[in-house]
Design a protein that fits this description.
Blueprint lengths: L2 H33 L3 E7 L9 H4 L3 E7 H4 L8 E4 L18 H5 L3 E2 L14 E2 L1 H5 L12 E5 L16 E11 L1 H8 L1 H8 L23 H8 L3 E17 L2 E2 L16 E5 L1 H13 L1 E6 L22 H16 L2
Antiparallel strand pairs: 1-2, 1-3, 4-5, 6-10, 7-8, 7-11, 8-9, 8-10
Helix pairs in contact: 6-8, 8-10
């Protein structure tokens, strides 16, 4: 065997020995690295999952995968993880105890909140209820120039709890009006003349000069004022054809579909102009209010509300007028 051949053989042997040594070294390093790394079971999307896709329909496009524990387990992680990939290989292997684990429970009754790309890890944030997906802010449904204001009439004042979002209502206010100051004004000729005009300054005797016992002319206006009640209960429709935005959690943009089931006493949100909102707030503070429900799909005809007093129900005012006439007749005027 020639010298060159011997040198070549020695070189080949040394190369093989070196390659084997490098291989053993790298294998040892890889083993040491793998000893410090734990892989856990996760789930990935295999196809694009569109927004709104029900979880049951998306399940075939989700498969089990693996990922480094360090990339999955961290404070507040919502990545679905079912444990270490090979728990039997290392009895001390730690999975992901605080991560959500049950994929099927997560998908049940939920839909994709947004598109889930192929290869993307599955998290709890990606799945919401249909109501959460379709929810919008109530302010988004208020047209320009309008505002929302709420009232809370009792169940009877809210049409028995049958008012629903999208309904139209009239607002009725009832209050007790104190007449004491007005009566005092009518009984003082000088004061009522300055407020109501000179025509109310003195009694109108015409051609009759009959006087009272002390020689003064009778004050007919003052006598009428004495017959007026100290207070007056009054009811009036103050606002008409108002649209209902919400009744409790039932809203116009996201109705609950409660149908003809009465909802009892609820906060009712109305869509009104800013000026109407001021009137409603005043009525809410100082009167008792009720709502009257208007028919659906029928053009509304506004009416001039004059209000209702006790005489619209009974004959009290008529009896007072009769007494006034009798008093005036007895005085000879």
């Amino acid at each position: 065997m020639g010298r060159r051949t011997i040198v070549l053989v020695i070189a080949i042997v040394l190369a093989v020995v070196s390659a084997f040594a490098v291989y053993r070294y790298l294998t040892t390093v890889e083993g040491d690295i793998r000893a410090d790394i734990t892989e856990v079971k996760v789930f990935r999307a295999t196809n694009l999952i569109e927004t709104g896709t029900p979880g049951s329909e998306a399940r075939p496009f989700i498969e089990e995968s693996r990922a480094l524990r360090e990339a999955v387990v961290f404070d507040g992680s919502t990545i679905v993880c079912s444990g270490p990939v090979d728990p039997s290989g290392d009895p001390n292997a730690v999975g992901c105890p605080d991560n959500p684990k049950d994929l099927d429970a997560l998908l049940e009754g939920r839909v994709a909140a947004g598109p889930v790309s192929a290869g993307q890890l599955i998290t709890t944030d990606q799945w919401v209820t249909p109501a959460e997906l379709n929810s919008i802010s109530l302010s988004e449904s208020i047209p320009q120039g309008k505002v929302a204001i709420s009232v809370r009439p009792d169940e009877v004042g809210a049409v028995g709890g049958f008012i629903r979002p999208g309904d139209k209502v009239n607002l009725v206010a009832s209050a007790t009006v104190q007449l004491n100051s007005f009566i005092q004004l009518l009984q003082n000729p000088d004061l009522r003349a300055s407020i109501l005009g000179e025509g109310f300054a003195a009694p109108d005797t015409g051609t009759d000069t009959t006087t009272t016992g002390d020689g003064t002319e009778p004050d007919i206006v003052g006598q009428v004022a004495e017959t007026l009640p100290a207070q007056l209960d009054f009811t009036q429709t103050i606002l008409q054809n108002l649209e209902v935005l919400a009744v409790g959690p039932d809203t116009r943009p996201s109705p609950l579909g409660t149908g003809l089931e009465p909802q009892g006493s609820q906060v009712i949100v109305l869509e009104v102009t800013p000026e109407q909102a001021e009137q409603i707030e005043f009525a809410r503070q100082y009167t008792s209010i009720a709502l009257s429900l208007l028919p659906a799909d029928v053009p509304y005809t506004p009416f001039d509300s004059t209000g209702v007093v006790v005489d619209d129900l009974f004959t009290l005012i008529d009896r007072i007028a009769e007494n006034v006439e009798a008093t005036v007749g007895a005085s000879g005027n």
